[in-house]
Amino acid sequence: MFVIVMFTGAFPNGSAPIKKLMPLRGQLSILASILTLGHNAAYGRVYFVRLFTDPASLPTGQLLAAICSVLMMLIMLPLFITSFMAVRRKMQPKRWKALQRLAYGFYGLLCCHILLLTVPEAVHGESTYQLTVFVYVTVFLSYLSCRISKALAKRKNTSCLLARRQAVAVICCTALSASVVLFLGRSNSNSVESAPPVESVTESHSGYREGTYTGSAMGMNAPIEVSVTVEGGHITDISIISSRDDEPYFSDALYVIDDILAANHTQVDTVTGATYSSGGIIDAVEAALESAGE
Questions:
Q1: 130 and 210, same structural domain?
Q2: pTM over 0.70
Q3: Per the database entry, which stretches of residues form a coiled coil (predicted)?
Q4: Is 156 part of any domain?
Q5: Number of domains in the chain
Q6: φ, ψ at 216 (rounded to 5°)
Q7: Which tens digit of pLDDT belongs to each residue from 230-260?
Q8: Range of the domain at 93
Q9: CA 239, CA 242: separation in Å to the nearest integer?
Q10: Residue 88: per-residue pLDDT
């Protein structure tokens, strides 16, 4: 919904879509704000708590994304309140319009928040995240281009060329977004090509001392603790002792255990769609194996 609100103010005034959407812009903004507040309430109970109580436990990307979320909420609340017509009528038009310019900062933080969470996964070759990066980069670059072209057209009084310029800008932004995604995919393929052969890694991790070892590492929401059993120099069992990650994701992440057991080492891929949870399991197993030695 915020995308509709964004472009309603970026497209040419008086155009047919804008005439239909402009009267609804306030209501759309209110609905989008309510959904955003609900989203932040759901995830904030984990990430905001960790941000203010134990920021070091958050990976850098999640830490920066959480900071962006807090700043977004601080900006969004006054925008949300003043979107109600009863409140707007009590404000001076110039003051209300000046306050609404805070939305530009909100959109910028929203873009940063999304990219901080998706680009790292896109770089690792996750096709879903690459598509997400493509869509959002296209949307935000197109909005920025349309907003700038509208401001320039208004200053030069050349509104007749505005629609054409904006169409060209959107096409260019789409092409640029596609280039970004292709670059991310290329970076991942290069890293895969330069990775050492699996056989050499397997050999270097054989011969663990027999016993049962425990280890822990950060998952999606909290530390994951595992128990690792070694027999005859091989990893024979991996059990989860504790985890507070969300169940749908964590259930998928458990498939990484079979990969570790089959490979007899932790140099395996994370599970698509459960990257942080499966990565936490891998790191926890690795921490346990440090006690096993070689």
A1: no
A2: no
A3: none
A4: no
A5: 2
A6: -140, 155
A7: 988 889 999 999 888 877 778 888 999 999 9
A8: 2-137+185-192
A9: 9
A10: 87
- 282 and 256 in contact (C-beta within 8 Å)? yes
Segment 123-157, tens digit of pLDDT: 766 677 778 888 888 888 888 877 777 777 666 55
Structure tokens at 139: 């949307």
